[in-house]
């Protein structure tokens, strides 16, 4: 490789306002036009983005103590249960939690109008949130009950900590059965009525760094409109999934665990969402910058939708039962065109993850870096890659 | 000829009167019923497309209003909240008429009220609940 830049060199250019930053969409035509070597010389950073439902998300909150003090053991925020099995006035509010009184799927398909994701959105929007907490009472924390209102700006700490975000690839869901089904991939109409997928393709962070060479523990990112960090590899991180010759996985592979200050976030990029018949979730904006250290990193970021493949799975039978395989492989160019062909039938597609919002995120991150406000970080530690041998294990049922 | 999509709100007291018959017979209007929610002795709602000569249309609407029926423009009753929309496209595969459609390649969703037949398929399909119906 002829080009070799260091993080320090790139950061120096960023600090001086001289860094050349483009989005993962823009880089494609630049490389096609100028070639790898010339582009790697000119471009310093490529920004990525994704804005999709990410269920394994939530926030740690510390409310502060009332007088007299309380060791909260059951906590509700706008009626939604938050996990209180940690210290006295700390909780973890999960994105998919629903109010105890929600009929869920008893009236199938349930509406799931409100849940943890919505509470997080309201907190981020600066709204008053009703706090109700109960305790068994102790000598040091005598209070047994509290009802009040909180606001994000008034509580001590509030940080998002997401166990699994930014999935590197995801399946395309269809329904081969005769009735509509209600899934986390949206409503799937019978007899291949629609095909729903959920990544931002060529803009998606881990499609642009398929072997996690620059994205690792400590990487500074855009999270929900503020700055965040990669904390760890995410749950279900599966780097050894089958890959194309460009290194891109053909099915769900890497994931990231992310952390960031809720107080910096913007409700525009932190949105509670409802999936009829399934539950609630949180859409979060994530953007990861990729330093163009050399031609190799540049080549990864030049990946385009037509070169990224995913599997079409039947969510009526083969997915829930964990049997059978893919109905076929499609690329994101086809998915984005609006129709794919499955079993000889033209099937309309919907993205679920928002490409236009992903692009906005990549643009925002680009402007932060151009303005010298956002420096890149070299990972403190890599997340496991293809050489780790890490596999995803199913849960075996023992007797 | 003009054509308008409107929402008609019938107070409970008049629900059982044959207003639509008069619209056709006395005002020569074409009526295309898109959605009806009429129950005896309760407030009723109709989403209809009314077309005819402009003069007749206006007289017909006045006739309805004089009978205590509210005539509301459809665009104000069914709102696609662009601010809340995340452009996820989930509604576009549910909408039978293309009223909610993904424009490509920019991947932005748009709503065209003229094409909407008020089938309501999109309401709960929208994860962000960006479609609000007030009829
Ligand atoms: S109500 Fe029906 S026709 Fe109107 S936008 Fe929704 S899905 Fe389309
Ligand atoms: S389903 Fe809702 S949020 Fe998604 S594109 Fe349609 S209107 Fe917008």
Tell me about this structure.
- The complex is a heterodimer of chains A (399) and B (135).
- With 399 residues, chain A is an alpha+beta fold.
- Chain A folds into 2 domains: 49-54 and 162-290 and 303-371, no CATH class; 58-160, no CATH class.
- Chain A is built from 8 helices and 24 strands.
- In chain A, strands 3, 4, 7, 10, 15, 16, 17, 18 and 19 form a 9-stranded antiparallel beta sheet that branches. In chain A, strands 6-5-8-9 form a 4-stranded antiparallel beta sheet. A 3-stranded mixed beta sheet of chain A has the order 1-2-20, with helices on both faces.
- In chain A, helix 2 (26-34) crosses helix 3 (36-42).
- By secondary structure, chain B is α+β, with helices and mostly antiparallel strands.
- Chain B folds into 2 domains: 2-75, ACT domain (Alpha-Beta Plaits); 78-133, Alpha-Beta Plaits (2-Layer Sandwich), CATH 3.30.70.
- Helices cover 19% and strands 33% of the residues of chain B.
- Chain B contains 3 helices and 8 strands.
- In chain B, helix 1 packs antiparallel against helix 2 (54-66).
- Chain B starts with a strand and ends with a strand.
- The mean pLDDT of chain B is 92.
- The interface between A and B is medium-sized, with 31 and 19 residues.
- One iron/sulfur cluster (SF4) is lined by residues 85-91, 100, 109, 126, 128, 130-131 of chain B.
Rg estimate of chain A, integer Å: 22 Å
**The number of domains of chain B:** 2
Instruction: Assign a percent range to the helix content of chain B.
Output: 10-25%
Number of strands of chain A: 24
Q: Quick one: how many beta strands of chain B?
A: 8
Enumerate how many helices of chain B there are, as a single number. Answer: 3
The CATH class of the largest domain in chain B is Alpha Beta
Portion in helices of chain A: 10-25%
Q: What order do the SSEs of chain B take from the amino end to the carboxyl end, as H and E? A: EHEEHEHEEEE
Within the largest sheet of chain B, what's the order of strands? 2-3-1-4
**Low-confidence runs of chain A:** none
Cα radius of gyration of chain B in angstroms? 17 Å
Low-confidence stretches of chain B: none
